[in-house]
Amino acid sequence: MLAGRFKLRTGNKVIGETPMLVPAFSSKFEPAIGKIIKQMPEYINGPILISAYDVYYKDITKIKVPITFCSLLFLDSGGYEVSQDRDFADVVHDDYKPKEWSKEKYLSVLNNWSYKRPTVIVSYDHPQNKYSTVRQIRIAKLWFKDRKNVLSEVLIKPEPRSKMVSVDHVIENVELLNDFDIIGFTEKELGRSILERMENIARTRIAMREKDVAKPMHIFGSLDMLSTPLYFIAGADIFDGLTWLRYGYVKGLSVYEQNFGLITALPLDSTDMYTRMRRVVFNVDELAKLRQKMDNYLVDGDLRKLEQFESHAGLFSSAFDALRSRLVSRGKEVI
Q1: Assigned domain for 335 exists
Q2: Do the beta carbons of residue 256 and residue 249 sit within 8 Å?
Q3: Using an 8 Å Cβ cutoff, are 68 and 116 in contact?
Q4: Which regions of the chain are under pLDDT 50?
Q5: In sequence order, what are the beta bridge partners of 47?
Q6: Which residues sit opposite 155 in a β-bridge?
Q7: Residue 219 belongs to what domain range?
Q8: Does the reported pTM lie above 0.70?
């Protein structure tokens, strides 16, 4: 079994345990994202992810610090907000224009953050800066050198002149990853198909095990009822994304907001805001159910425990068989 369980610690205190599903918030989805965050304390008590970019420009987003309702806070470096790239599920406003962003601005956020909740800091990345995999790791190591009582996450990005992460270079230097608490990748930069991304996650996990690098893998931009379990059975552990804000999780699928209201039998005269809030709360519940399914799978590796709905029947077993075949062709046997 490629999936596993990890405990996140600061000192001797356990502050989180994988598998971990992390609702994300970003002004790239909604300029007034702070208004949505204000309504979440009643519904979320687990981990969340926010961007340092949105914290810095709080006069626009109205994010008020400290955020104290979550159990664990992932503080992303802002690379997503300043890029023109889109996640697979992105529905970005056509008039979205990022503001100026730099390492110095990120540092100012980190230096003024309250840290009243356990915090994971993600290494700095910017779409204009591309380095070799080894250099990325070395720069991130220096970034975290003097930071105490936080968890460190290195986000591995594509090398110059490439749109995909060099998984071969990650594997060649996998022992260097022991310097961090969490290893991160963005979903769309791990491959050109679901199977290729699963294979690259699995190859990385196998290499980490062979070199005793017992660290959780975080997949940025993946948080739904289908791709998240697939990457989980391939060996990833932490998943975040904005899909839970964009769509409704209904019967294991991500559906358009207006369809969510119809499928879940909301009154036809329900306002858009009422439908949105019902959908967001519903999605939080569905993520909790999915996490429990993932926990159940870890007990004995029975893939049927991930099949929440009839439409899922056989899907995960078939995908895992395809993954196993790919790995066997590379000389890696997975039981």
Answers
A1: no
A2: no
A3: yes
A4: none
A5: 72
A6: 184
A7: 7-242
A8: yes
Q: Provide the domain count of the chain.
A: 1
Query: Which amino acid belongs to residue 168?
Result: D
- Please count the CA atoms within 13 angstroms of the CA of 184 that sit on its side-chain side: 27
What span, in angstroms and rounded, lies between the C-alpha atoms of 197 and 200?
5
List the structure tokens of 101: 């962003």
Amino acid making up residue 62 = K
Residue 203 neighbours by CB under 8 Å, 6+ apart: 167, 171, 327, 330, 332
- SS (HEC) of 158-213: CCCCCCCCCHHHHHHCHHHHHHCCEEEEEHHHCCCCHHHHHHHHHHHHHHHHHCCC
Taking CA atoms, 273 is separated from 63, 187, 201, 257, 277, in Å, by 20, 30, 38, 11, 6
pLDDT averaged over the chain?
Answer: 89
Residue 201, phi then psi, degrees to nearest 5: -65, -45
At 19 the three-state DSSP class reads coil
Q: What is the share, in percent, of the chain residues with pLDDT greater than 90?
A: 58
Query: Is 1 contained in some domain?
Result: no
Q: What are phi and psi of 225, to 5 degrees?
A: -80, -10
Dihedral of alpha carbons 28, 31, 37, 40, sign: negative
- What residue ranges in 41-200 does DSSP mark as E strands? 47-51, 72-76, 119-122, 151-155, 182-186
Instruction: Look at residue 212 and tell me if it is in a domain.
Output: yes
Local structure of residue 313 (DSSP, 8 states): T
CATH label of the domain that carries residue 71: 3.20.20.105
Question: Is the separation of the CB atoms in 118 and 73 below 8 Å?
Answer: yes
Give domain status of residue 262, yes or no.
Answer: no
N-to-C CA span, the chain = 6
Q: Which of 309, 311, 275, 276 is nearest to 290 (CA)?
A: 309
DSSP string, 245-257: HHSEEETTEEE-H
Give the pLDDT score at 178: 96
